[in-house]
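Consider the tokenized backbone below.
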């Protein structure tokens, strides 16, 4: 078992380069199924969720070659099944994207129930609603979603609420359907735009991505392309918060500052200095961190995927802060771990955290409960007095490329330690 040992207290300093976006790249990999020729993806992050998506493609007969770090050649013309293996599907939410892409190309998909971080109940009813609107049927067969259609025909799809995953899947199923599809109340996240741009670069006809109405005219053939993934908004935000929490001075490079606006605005509200440049943001602290209120919202609101990291910063702010989680109904499980480090947080009704700032956190043995919770604990460990030992770091590696190396380059004292199962590690401070 691997753990991170972090000796806190070093202000982060220097420049960190942001990798390709996880939540875009997992969708791009699945979308290669719609391409009738080989294609090449660039700026693909080396994270475990991508490895699993590529494994899904390989398990179905696709040819996948890593040309160099971050550059992957994919030929899905050799796919010989529309079934995704249980073991791969059950480990991540993004496996649900294979429903839309297989349906879009082969008019059939068998995808075991998606897994992913436990953040509360995560049904896929809106995904299925979109498939049905286009003429597909769905049933649950041996614990898997089985969707099929004789033909897919464009239609109007209105989502009951904003959902990233269902918007992606509606695009995938519609891109080769006959006629026009109009998706209303669509998600506007940067990764939706990235996927639409990728498909358009193959010859798809998708307009309006990034607004709440997306119009798609189905095409018959999608040609090969080479496409680079956008930078990861959440990885960037995580380093911005880590810089603030350690009272550091960090340039976060290779980003699209516009994607970071809601995070930048909240950091500034807390007294953190943020300077936006063309492709980087510079974050530093020259005074106390102040309390604030945060409410998570679909893009362009404050992202739920930054909520645990930002709440962690607020545990060290002056005064009382209030954080409301509007997207998921169980995204405060990390609070119990932060309390072990001396944080003063109470959670009301599973949706609202009241955070009373404390002067410092104290190092402790803690466990990552999911991906962003793990990132939050890394930030807590970097800022805390003494040694923090983080267990379950495989969650963190689902979404952060080389996080320990990048942090060391910024001056953090973080080590990856292999600990035999059940071995007790004596904490020295
Ligand atoms: C995507 O999840 C991301 N995952 C999540 O990233 C992110 O937190 C989330 O969008 C919100 O931004 C990927 O992109 C792979 P949703 P997704 O559909 O698509 C409910 C991370 O840490 N819902 O926008 O699953 C759902 O339960 C993560 O990187 C339904 O009820 O999110 C949730 O409460 C974790 N029925 C809300 O809607 C549906 O059919 C929003 O979910 C679909 C969703």
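A designed sequence for it:
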């Amino acid at each position: 078992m691997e753990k991170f040992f972090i000796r806190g207290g070093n202000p982060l300093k220097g420049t960190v380069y942001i990798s390709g976006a996880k939540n875009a790249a997992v969708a791009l990999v699945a979308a290669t199924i719609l391409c009738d020729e080989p294609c090449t993806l660039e700026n693909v992050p080396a994270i475990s969720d991508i490895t699993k998506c590529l494994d899904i493609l390989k398990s179905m007969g696709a040819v996948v070659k890593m040309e160099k770090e971050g550059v992957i050649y994919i030929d899905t013309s050799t796919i010989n099944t529309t079934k995704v293996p249980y073991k791969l599907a059950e480990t991540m939410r993004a496996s649900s994207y294979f429903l839309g892409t297989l349906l879009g190309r082969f008019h059939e998909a068998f995808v075991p129930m998606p897994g992913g971080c436990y953040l509360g109940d995560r049904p896929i009813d809106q995904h299925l609603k979109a498939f049905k609107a286009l003429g597909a049927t769905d049933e649950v067969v041996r614990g898997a979603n089985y969707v099929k259609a004789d033909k897919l025909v464009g239609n109007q799809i209105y989502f009951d609420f904003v959902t990233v995953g269902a918007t992606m899947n509606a695009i995938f199923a519609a891109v080769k359907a006959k006629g026009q599809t109009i998706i209303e109340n669509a998600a506007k996240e940067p990764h939706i735009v990235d996927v639409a741009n990728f498909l358009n670069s193959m010859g798809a006809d998708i307009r309006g991505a990034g607004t709440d109405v997306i119009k798609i005219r189905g095409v018959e053939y999608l040609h090969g392309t080479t496409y680079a993934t956008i930078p990861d908004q959440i990885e960037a935000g995580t380093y911005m918060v880590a810089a603030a929490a350690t009272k550091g001075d960090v340039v976060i490079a290779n980003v699209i500052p516009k994607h970071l606006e809601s995070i930048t605005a909240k950091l500034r509200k807390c007294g953190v200095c943020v300077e936006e440049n063309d492709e980087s943001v510079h974050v530093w602290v020259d005074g106390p961190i102040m309390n604030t209120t945060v409410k998570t919202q679909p893009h362009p609101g404050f992202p739920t995927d930054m909520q645990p990291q930002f709440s962690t910063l607020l545990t060290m702010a002056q005064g009382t802060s209030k954080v409301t989680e509007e997207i998921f109904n169980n995204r405060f499980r990390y609070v119990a771990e932060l309390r072990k480090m001396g944080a003063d947080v109470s959670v009301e009704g599973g949706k609202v955290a009241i955070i009373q700032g404390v002067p410092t956190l104290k190092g402790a043995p803690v466990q990552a409960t999911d991906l962003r919770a793990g990132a939050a604990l890394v930030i807590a460990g970097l800022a805390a007095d003494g040694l923090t030992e983080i267990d379950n770091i495989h969650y963190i590696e689902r979404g952060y490329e080389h996080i320990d190396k990048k942090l060391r380059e910024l001056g953090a004292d973080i080590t990856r330690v292999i600990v035999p199962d059940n071995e007790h590690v004596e904490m020295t401070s």
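The first strand starts at residue 2 and ends at 7.
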